[in-house]
Write a structure and sequence with these properties.
Layout (H helix, E strand, L loop, with lengths): L6 E14 L5 E15 L5 E13 L6 H6 L5 E14 L5 E14 L1
Parallel strand pairs: 3-5
Antiparallel strand pairs: 1-2, 1-4, 2-3, 4-5
Length: 109
Amino acid sequence: MDCINKIELCGIVGSARTINSENGGVSHAAFTVATNFAYRNSNGDPVIETTWHSVTGFAGPGIKEKTLKALEKGCKVHVIGRVRNIRYTGGDGIERTMTEIIATCVEIV
């Protein structure tokens, strides 16, 4: 049986930063996406739970360079990719784990 590592998100861009390649085009973008989950708590009150996702997308077959250039705070995006966990040691000496989405497809909706 094959293993599957796939995630699909539809949310709002919180921040976006594009990285230019040496030839002047955009090589990749790092951005955050907020997704919401709505439910009612035990008292029946509505609750909206927001989760922030760190996303990295590389210009290529599934992601157009012009899409990466157009990413800005507040735009709605559809992202398909894989999950990657990164371990690092912070400046305070504490080991941390960060979860990142490596996008294979990014569309502004």
